UniProtKB/TrEMBL annotation, chain A:
PROSITE patterns linked: ABC_TRANSPORTER_1 (PS00211), ABC_TRANSPORTER_2 (PS50893), CBS (PS51371)
Domain ABC transporter residues, every copy: 27-263
Keywords for the protein's UniProt record, in alphabetical order: Amino-acid transport, ATP-binding, CBS domain, Nucleotide-binding, Transport
Listed NCBIfam families: proV
Domain CBS: 278-344
Keyword Nucleotide-binding in record: yes
Identification of the protein by name: L-proline betaine and betonicine ABC transporter (ATP-binding protein)
Family: Belongs to the ABC transporter superfamily.
Organism domain of life: Bacteria
Annotated GO CC locations: membrane
Annotated source species: Actinacidiphila bryophytorum
Biological processes per GO annotation: amino acid transport; glycine betaine transport; response to osmotic stress
Name of the gene encoding the protein in the UniProt record: opuAA
UniProtKB/TrEMBL annotation, chain B:
Limits of the ABC transmembrane type-1 domain: 87-266
Protein name: Glycine betaine/proline transport system substrate-binding protein
GO molecular function: amine transmembrane transporter activity; carnitine transmembrane transporter activity
Localization (cell): Cell membrane; Membrane
């Protein structure tokens, strides 16, 4: 069973939201509704997130991604449709049960950190535990552990405003991790950080994820971030999810011109892997041949260029067990790095 | 447009409230009175310098040595100008009013911040409270709560509370919505979000509101003086009405010292009570200007500061100065103890014959074993208080004209004890050095000399209307002279100024008035009798009081004074100086042997 399921979620703001949903379903244009003062923020969003997956929702500002995220923990009630978390309908929970869910099972990391300026770093990290009602000593121990996990050991007694942006967001992350929630909602959590620090934080999140195996829904407007972090990516435009797939699916097979134009500036050589462009071996390849150059299925294309330059033969692509999976000819490699989507290159 | 009887409705509401809710008003009144008495007992109990020390220690704790020294100097100054008791009374009034105002304002502000409907409801009410002139609700407040501290406290609360509500609402509304959402996202219950996130973050703004509430409360002190609240207000109010510039200045400076002290202390509290404020202050201090002068920067830790204050307070308690007794009452001659300790409250307003007659009666009644007290009010307040029985007797009712309105309204609650002075007159007066002007008619053709103006008093005074509508046109002066409205004290100040410069000046005046014994003035006679016959001055008693104090009633009925008597009494009081009224009266009584026996005859032969 999927950890988190969104079924035909609509979120419409305005005076008569239900009416808005009905009209959208009947085919009324979103801009037409907005002119009347009704905003359809999320339109018919459906997706499933598996346990342990990082699910990225990517879209430009105003695409409805933050609103969608808030329907997942009930901060925004869907106007129509439902959200199932572990099979329970989040939107039908009583206020008290919803609060319990938020304090124990789902936690959140915010764009501008949302640290409480009147609490020390330790008290911020332990906030969720305080809401859970844990005694002070246990709360502080676990908060300190969470801080250590994000690399902030020794900063417990500091105040949020004494920390750099990156460190503040680590406190935000520690606060979310401390409650031991199994679902993490991250709302543009790294967008307010400098590029270098953002990269550090992405790396740290991936490292943590290897250990913790949380289920994470991550919102971003940065395609490179989406590609780096996401096991799967949902692309949103004007309130609708226009494509869901892995980074490579989206690069290789964009669902629409919009997605295609969106992904055209992505550094393909770093996102696409050997597996995504390899072809069935036309002939048996002798892996023991010293002339034969091998590459792993997960190797990004950028790292194939040097090996490819050393041999005229196609590169042999091997899996984790060292078995042959496919081959990549030099022309295939070059075409894949070109501007055109890979599919078309193949056809050519 | 038909005349809308808004005023009548307001009056109806007030009388309806008085009839049906007097129990509630009495309860409120009693609570406020006890609060005030308690606070005043604590603040006013210790000897002035000790209390100044306690207040300075508080300043030391909150802000450090320089503020403490300045505070001590300021309070010593208040004691030095003999305003200590009044200052502590005012401080108590401010403390009680501000505390009650905040107790109401903060929850109201929280409510308004959390509900748009509440905010929309509360706002117009606050607007009215802030802008309605205090005098408008002071008189109903007296009707509801009787004279003295309570209406002053109520008026102060009405005036000072709105800013507390507004600042609380603002403070909570301006908490970063993302923080509230974060609290929400972690499953915080709404009440807890309020207590643990919104209020702490709003605290600096709320404390700025507290500071403003206290400052506004202090600014109402003078107005409180007009309805009989003790304190600096009555000092200043009294000084103003008697053009006593020196005393007014002393009272004013005392108000300023209190204001600055309260501002600095509450400002510092704003920093100390919130975690955010402490952090800001700590950062500011590390980069402070006073680097290198550790002594100036030193601030005791809370424990040390608190123990300083407590220790001094214990010393104060230990020396037994708390609740010290008032002045010992004068011995009462044997056989003349008619009063047997019964209390008589004599009302007066800051008119000289009122002060003189009220204090003369106090001396007479004290000598006969009563406990008499003279309380000074604004006239409107005094007549209202007399009707309610807060005042037993009022010695300065000008009838049948000047105070006719009060008699019309409250006449059934009064017993008229008859006239004791005949006859007052209204007139225009000029200095005697202006030659050739002795009647109103003589003003004709000399308007240039007088600058074309007659210096008047309050625009609402009956005398002003009479002069403008009847007397000036009657003598054909309305074209040549402009009647300038000001105030009684303004008119007297103008007279003093021009008199000193020997400039011709014409002022609106009345007799009896001390100005006639202070300056050489000519009352302009009124050959056409346009001013009408003058009023007589009556003693009025509250009906119930008259029955309770039959001796006093009968003595007052037999009481008369002539213009020279009254003039010399007023002059004696004036000569004794402000604050020494009783001494002035004693000297005058000593110079007029037998006067007490005439006023208050004892025994059959009396």
């Amino acid at each position: 069973m999927s950890k988190l399921v969104a079924e035909h979620v609509f979120k419409v703001f305005g005076r008569r939201p239900k009416e808005g949903v009905r009209r959208i379903q009947a085919g009324t244009d979103r801009d037409e509704l907005r002119a009347e003062g009704t905003t359809a923020a999320v339109i018919d969003a459906s997706f499933e997130v598996q346990q342990g997956e990082i699910f990225v929702v990517m879209g430009l500002s105003g695409s409805g991604k933050s609103t969608l995220l808030r329907t997942l923990n009930g901060l925004a009630q869907p106007t129509s449709g439902r959200v199932l978390f572990d099979g329970r309908d989040v939107s039908s929970l009583a206020a008290k049960d919803l609060r319990h869910l938020r304090s124990h099972r789902i936690s959140m990391v915010f764009q501008h950190f949302a640290l409480f300026p009147h609490r020390s770093v330790l008290d911020n990290a332990g906030y969720g535990l305080e809401v859970q009602g844990l005694p002070r000593q246990e709360r502080e121990e676990r908060a300190a552990q969470a801080l250590e996990l994000v690399g902030l050991a020794g900063w417990e007694r500091s105040w949020p405003d004494e920390l750099s942006g990156g460190m503040q967001q680590r406190v935000g992350l520690a606060r979310a991790l401390a409650t031991d929630a199994d679902l993490l909602l991250m709302d543009e959590s790294f967008s307010a950080l400098d590029p270098l620090i953002r990269r550090d934080m992405q790396d740290q999140l991936l490292t943590l994820q290897q250990r913790l195996r949380k289920t994470i829904v991550f919102i971003t407007h940065d395609l490179n971030e989406a590609m780096r972090l996401g096991d799967r990516i949902a692309v949103m435009r004007d309130g609708r999810i226009v494509q869901i797939g892995t980074a490579q699916d989206i690069l290789v097979d964009p669902a629409s011109d919009y997605v295609a134009s969106f992904v055209q500036d992505v550094d393909r050589s770093r996102v696409l892997t050997a597996a995504s462009i390899m072809q069935k071996p036309p002939v048996a390849v002798d892996l023991s041949d010293p002339q034969c150059v091998t590459a792993h299925t997960d190797t990004p294309l950028a790292e194939l260029l040097t090996p490819a330059s050393r041999t005229r033969q196609p590169l042999a692509v091997v899996d984790d067990e060292g078995r042959l999976s496919g081959v990549i000819a030099r022309d295939t490699l070059l075409a894949a790095l070109g501007d055109q989507p890979v599919k078309e290159a193949h056809r050519a | 447009m038909p005349r809308i009887r808004l005023g009548n409705w307001a009056e109806d509401v007030v009388s309806w409230l008085t009839r049906h809710f007097s129990w509630l008003f009495d309860a409120v009144s009693s609570v406020v009175n006890h609060l005030y008495d308690g606070v005043e007992w604590v603040l006013g109990g210790p000897s002035p310098l000790l209390m100044a020390g306690i207040l300075a220690a508080l300043a030391f704790w909150m802000r450090g040595l320089p503020t403490a020294l300045a505070a001590f100097a300021g309070f010593a100054l208040i004691d030095g100008v003999a305003q200590w008791d009044q200052a502590m009374q005012s401080l108590s009034l401010v403390v009680v009013s501000a505390a009650v105002a905040l107790l109401l304002a903060v929850p109201l502000g929280v409510w308004a911040a959390r509900s748009r409907v509440a905010s929309a409801l509360v706002r117009p009410v606050l607007d009215v409270m802030q802008t309605l002139p205090a005098f408008v609700y002071l008189i109903p407040a007296i009707i509801f709560f009787s004279l003295g501290t309570v209406p002053a406290v109520i008026a102060t609360i009405v005036f000072a509370m709105p800013v507390g509500v507004r600042m609380t609402e603002l403070g909570i509304r301006q908490v970063d919505p993302e923080l509230v959402e974060a609290a929400d996202a972690f499953g915080t219950a709404p009440a807890r979000t309020l207590l643990r996130v919104q209020l702490p973050l709003a605290l600096p703004t709320i404390m700025a509101g507290v500071n403003q509430v206290i400052m506004l409360a202090l600014s109402m002190v003078v107005i409180g003086g007009m309805v009989g609240a003790e304190g600096l207000g009555s000092t200043v109010f009294g000084a103003i009405s008697q053009v006593d510039i020196g005393l007014g200045f002393e009272g004013g400076v005392s108000v300023v010292v209190l204001a600055v002290y309260l501002d600095r202390i509450t400002g510092a509290m704003g920093e100390q009570v919130s975690a955010l404020g402490r952090r800001t202050a700590a950062r500011a201090r590390t980069g402070g200007r006073l680097r290198g002068f550790a002594v100036l920067r030193y601030r005791p830790r809370p424990a040390v500061g608190l123990s300083c204050v407590v220790a001094l307070a214990l010393v104060a308690a230990g020396t037994g100065v708390f609740g010290g007794d008032g002045q010992p009452s004068a011995p009462v001659a044997a056989g003349s103890d008619v009063g047997k300790g019964r209390t008589v409250t004599i009302g007066s307003f800051n008119w000289d014959e009122s002060i003189a007659s009220a204090n003369l009666w106090k001396a007479a009644l004290d000598a006969r074993g009563f406990k008499a007290a003279v309380k000074t009010y604004d006239p409107g307040a005094a007549f209202t208080g007399l009707a309610r029985g807060d005042i037993d007797v009022l010695t300065d009712a000008w009838l049948p004209t000047t105070h006719a309105a009060y008699l019309k309204q409250y006449g059934k609650d009064y017993t008229d004890l008859g006239k004791w002075y005949e006859r007052t007159s209204l007139e225009v007066a000029v200095p005697s050095y202006v030659k050739g002007v002795t009647t109103m008619a003589d003003l004709k053709g000399r308007s240039k000399e007088f600058g074309g103006r007659i210096v008047g008093i309050e625009p609402g005074a009956g005398e002003m209307g009479l002069l403008k509508d009847k007397v000036l046109p009657g003598y054909g002066l309305d074209k040549d002279y402009r009647l300038v409205s000001s105030s009684t004290s303004g008119m007297l100040a103008e007279l003093a100024r021009d008199y000193a410069a020997r400039k011709p000046v014409a002022v609106v005046l009345w007799s009896p008035h001390w100005a006639y014994s202070t300056y050489h003035l000519t009352k302009l006679s009124d050959p056409k009798s346009l001013w009408g016959p003058g009023d007589s001055i009556h003693d009025l008693a509250n009906k119930a009081s008259a029955a309770r104090l039959p001796e006093v009633s009968s003595w007052m009925r037999g009481f008369h004074m002539t213009e020279p008597q009254l003039g010399s009494l007023e002059a004696a009081i004036q000569a004794a100086g402000q604050g020494n009224t009783a001494q002035g009266v004693r000297q005058w009584v000593a110079a007029h042997p037998g006067v007490l026996d005439t006023m208050a005859p004892v025994g059959a032969g009396g």
